[in-house]
């Protein structure tokens, strides 16, 4: 990572800790565009207009040219990749644990000459009918992670485990530590950490819809592994115990269930209040379970692209974790601020990837872990 970017990221962290979240996000976006810090009297940078919502549709992928520095994708599963040698890579491999197997993609950003410091890792869990390439294209997380020096892991659900390629967040055997998909995903995360020299204090997990629900489960089942959690348009851990209760929760919302624990990780939640696939009450339930009844400070705002939002924030205090809850007004079931190159995206909205990256990098695993 170059020093100017590090300086700007440090300033963004300070802005976050001071409650200036939009200013922190704007600073990160300027850094990623290589524009440098704005002058005191300089206005907000121009944003491209939104391209409309893509919601409640079959998954689609529109190929975009990738930077020439990326390693060409391979066909099919491959052995686990060797540690990064400094070149930017877009890897495909497979992982097995407890008789289960999944394929994954891994983005490895270029390393600076002589760089040896451990780097952060974000685990990204796609929604139903999506795959790793689609999710990476739609969220643009790789582009954001490149300059920040962050690895991004995209596990892929296999179709024989779920016909719609959903993570099975609603089944009890996949809501527990040491079993099912949580155990498989935690094992994969640890493998990538070991192979690529990841900073164990800066490992994060985020997801969309069913992936968001599984991210909440992982954060609660493996608090020593994930320093913070991001849930976009998802449901609370333990909100359902079978398919009928899952459908009911998606239609009307459900509180966190017994799968949750009393020690949530720092959490950022984004949910559209016009979501007709996963009821907006679920986003409130995810955030509410983390808040534990504590009061949060709410502010209203509008993103540069015009997206209205209400952001509720609680800083870490006592035994409570830091929580951000973004209600995206008028938004449906889509990754806010994403690219039209992927499915389930809402270009022009609040930049969910940038907000998650900002939130994640401002948190580390406590020393006790």
UniProtKB/TrEMBL annotation:
<feature type="compositionally biased region" description="Low complexity">
    <location>
        <begin position="72"/>
        <end position="85"/>
    </location>
</feature>
<dbReference type="Pfam" id="PF10503">
    <property type="entry name" value="Esterase_PHB"/>
</dbReference>
<dbReference type="InterPro" id="IPR010126">
    <property type="entry name" value="Esterase_phb"/>
</dbReference>
<keyword id="KW-0378">Hydrolase</keyword>
<dbReference type="GO" id="GO:0016787">
    <property type="term" value="F:hydrolase activity"/>
</dbReference>
<dbReference type="InterPro" id="IPR050955">
    <property type="entry name" value="Plant_Biomass_Hydrol_Est"/>
</dbReference>
<keyword id="KW-0732">Signal</keyword>
<dbReference type="GO" id="GO:0005576">
    <property type="term" value="C:extracellular region"/>
</dbReference>
<dbReference type="InterPro" id="IPR029058">
    <property type="entry name" value="AB_hydrolase_fold"/>
</dbReference>
<protein>
    <submittedName>
        <fullName>Esterase</fullName>
    </submittedName>
</protein>
<feature type="region of interest" description="Disordered">
    <location>
        <begin position="66"/>
        <end position="85"/>
    </location>
</feature>
């Amino acid at each position: 990572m170059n020093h100017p970017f590090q300086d700007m990221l440090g300033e963004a962290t300070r802005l976050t800790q001071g409650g200036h979240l939009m200013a922190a996000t704007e600073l990160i976006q300027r850094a990623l565009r290589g524009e440098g810090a704005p002058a005191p009297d300089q206005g907000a940078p121009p944003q491209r207009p939104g391209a409309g919502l893509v919601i409640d549709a079959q998954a689609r992928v529109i190929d975009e040219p990738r930077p020439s520095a990326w390693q060409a994708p391979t066909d099919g599963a491959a052995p686990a990749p060797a540690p990064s040698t400094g070149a930017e890579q877009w890897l495909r491999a497979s992982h097995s644990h407890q008789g289960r197997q999944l394929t994954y993609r891994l983005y490895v950003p270029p390393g600076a000459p002589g760089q040896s410091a451990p780097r952060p890792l974000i685990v990204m869990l796609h929604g139903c009918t999506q795959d790793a390439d689609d999710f990476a294209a739609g969220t643009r997380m790789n582009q954001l992670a490149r300059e920040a020096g962050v690895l991004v892991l995209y596990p892929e659900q296999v179709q024989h485990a779920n016909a719609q390629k959903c993570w099975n967040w609603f089944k009890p055997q996949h809501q527990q530590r040491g079993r099912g998909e949580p155990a498989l995903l935690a094992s994969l995360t640890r493998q990538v950490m070991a192979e690529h020299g990841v900073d164990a204090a800066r490992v994060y997990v985020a997801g969309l819809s069913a992936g968001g629900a599984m991210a909440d489960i992982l954060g609660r089942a493996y608090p020593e592994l994930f320093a913070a959690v991001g849930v976009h348009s998802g449901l609370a851990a333990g909100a359902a115990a079978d398919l009928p209760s899952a459908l009911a929760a998606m239609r009307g919302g459900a509180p966190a269930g017994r799968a949750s624990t009393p020690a949530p990780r720092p959490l950022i939640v984004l949910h559209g209040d016009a979501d007709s696939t996963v009821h907006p009450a679920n986003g409130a339930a995810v955030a509410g379970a983390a808040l534990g009844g504590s009061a949060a400070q709410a502010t209203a705002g509008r993103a540069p692209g015009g997206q209205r939002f209400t952001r509720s924030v609680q800083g870490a205090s006592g035994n409570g974790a830091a929580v951000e809850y973004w209600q995206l007004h008028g938004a449906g079931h889509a990754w806010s601020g994403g690219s039209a190159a992927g499915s389930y995206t809402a270009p022009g909205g609040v930049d969910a990837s940038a907000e998650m990256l900002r939130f994640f990098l401002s948190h580390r695993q406590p020393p006790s872990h």
